[in-house]
Write a structure and sequence with these properties.
Blueprint lengths: L3 H6 L8 H6 L8 E14 L5 H8 L9 E10 L1 E3 L5 E4 L1 E6 L2 E5 L1 E5 L6 E5 L5 E9 L5 E12 L2 E4 L7 E9 L4 E10 L3 E16 H4 L15
Antiparallel strand pairs: 1-2, 1-14, 2-5, 3-4, 4-7, 5-6, 7-8, 8-9, 9-10, 10-11, 10-12, 12-13, 13-14
Length: 226
């Protein structure tokens, strides 16, 4: 068995920087969880029209509803079996913004065919995005979102482009600083940039048999469809 990221990337996984290969080998087979701690140099938002949507999403830990600079943050990548017996890897980001901390929750699940990863967003997994992974020439990792779907009860509907967005994540390893660098940008086709963040962090790895899954890390509701 290999990590879900190696499974979907195939031979392309070997083109990643070795530190990225280890970080994205997190999974039940490897037996490790990964925790990153660092600083976001900038958390930004688009125009004022974006704020109501970000505030609404913030009630379900989907976007980061407040901008800021020099924001301490933690990202927790912990593998576990969900309610339906599927291997899941958490991507829970906590931003220490002034006044109170804010979370941006996501849980990644491998599709039944093993050909794609679904990114379930928020505390109730109402939003699902297909993710596409690619190794760049410099060993960095590019992740782009594909189709978005809204799932609740019997509803399973594609999110229209008018209100949907495309996310692009670039993650690299800076050898001179000994840190991972990340840049996230979310853009709507019609309204332009919505929000994003960029910064750097260091990671530690923990044996999952020792650390387990801390309370509150898993979503309140888990979606069966993948």
């Amino acid at each position: 068995m290999t990590s879900m990221f190696r499974t979907v990337m195939g031979a392309d996984f070997g083109r990643l920087h070795p530190q990225l290969q280890r970080r994205f080998s997190v999974g039940l087979a490897g037996g490790e969880a990964c925790t990153g701690r660092g600083v976001m140099d900038r958390v930004w938002h688009g125009g004022a029209f974006v704020r109501p949507f970000l505030m609404l999403g913030g009630t379900r830990n989907i976007p980061v509803p407040r901008p800021g600079r020099g924001v301490p943050f933690v990202i927790e990548n912990v593998p576990y079996l969900d309610t339906f017996g599927r291997e899941t890897v958490s991507f829970v980001r906590t931003f220490d913004l002034p006044g109170r901390s804010r979370r941006f929750d996501a849980q990644m699940v491998l599709s039944p065919k093993g050909d794609r990863i679904l990114d379930y967003l928020g505390t109730h997994q109402h939003l699902a995005s297909e993710l596409h992974f690619r190794a760049e020439a410099d060993g960095s990792l590019l992740i782009r979102s594909g189709e978005h779907r809204f799932r609740e009860g019997p509803v399973d509907a594609r999110v229209p482009e008018l209100i949907g967005a495309t996310a692009e994540v670039r993650e690299s390893y800076d050898e001179s600083a000994g840190r991972f660098r990340i840049r996230v940008r979310v853009v709507n086709r019609y309204f332009g940039p919505l929000f994003g963040y960029e910064g750097s962090f260091r990671v530690t790895y923990t044996d999952i048999d020792q650390c387990g899954v801390r309370p509150g890390l898993r979503p309140v509701r888990e979606e069966a469809r993948a």
